[in-house]
Amino acid sequence: MGSRYAAADLHQFSTELFQRAGLAGDRAAVMANIFLQADLLGFTTHGMNRVPHNLGWLESGESRTEGEPRVLADRGNCFNWDAEFLPGPWVLSQAVGQALRRVEEHGVVTATIRRSQHIACLAAYLPPVIEAGCVGILTCSTPAERTVSPQGGRDPLFSANPLAFAAPAGEYPLLFDISMSVTAGGYVARAAREGRKLPQPCLKDSEGRLSDDPAAFQEGGSILPVGGADHGYKGAALSAMLEVLSMGLGGYGRADASSADDGEANSVFLQVIDPRAFGTEANFLRQTRALCQLWESNRSDGDGEVRVPGQRAWAQRSTQLHDGVELYPSIMEDIRPWAEKLQVEMPEPQA
């Protein structure tokens, strides 16, 4: 891994970059926070690694710097926004805040967003939900993207369709952020950049043959759905469900010809649930704690550690806030040209 940086320094650095790229200070700070949170939790392909992409979209006008999302529907406990290419980390942070403000009254609040610029790491939006004692479900799809092939097919059909979930459970939350493909596109791109193969054949080439070579994907191939070559029908079914929740409920997606020009813009589904609408908080935590404890105490099969989703990420977040954030080596290399262009001083790594 790379050098460590103070979390506050990274946040300030990213905030200044986004301000110089045209965002107001408050919006720039929200953007910077989401990318920082991703790296704090250990999601290194979708944290500060995505800063250059977002700066490029702001510079080119693909992301708009001003304005509010357009409200398409609002019933109090559910709402649908058209972001019209506002920066994803900012507009989704607004939706999470709105849901948390409403959930005390409604118990469950559901939101969809169409045409949000890429929202990056889904797990990064969930710490405020956890800290509010709520359950969060978040997914997105990309109408213009086809990277994941269905079971038995050779042609890519779905986007990666990540799903994040969080629930309070005592010392650490149950927390995961997983795509409905065997691996994420970011890891394929990183392997290609570093000239190495993937750990297993999780790709198909353009003829439908299994491969571990990133070039197979880059030359018209696809990524396997969750479940792989043998059980990929499960991942394909989940991909379809998540596209229905995001594109279907949002009312915009693959059926719309204009979506083909939307680049990496996302359709988003968000749900925040207050357990106290169903019973006491103590009873809820009694169940989630028991689940985590039973999971932790499960005997190892000898091939790896037994780890509850969220246990390592939450501990890593706490450690890195205190000891500094360890960035993947290529991240600062990719940001440096933008820092020089926008005349923002690079942060100094910790000794």
TrEMBL record:
Sorted alphabetically, the keyword list is:
Oxidoreductase
| Pfam assignment, any one | Ldh_2
Molecular functions per Gene Ontology: oxidoreductase activity
Which domain of life does the protein's organism represent?
Bacteria
The UniProt family comment states: Belongs to the LDH2/MDH2 oxidoreductase family.
Q: What is this protein called?
A: L-lactate dehydrogenase
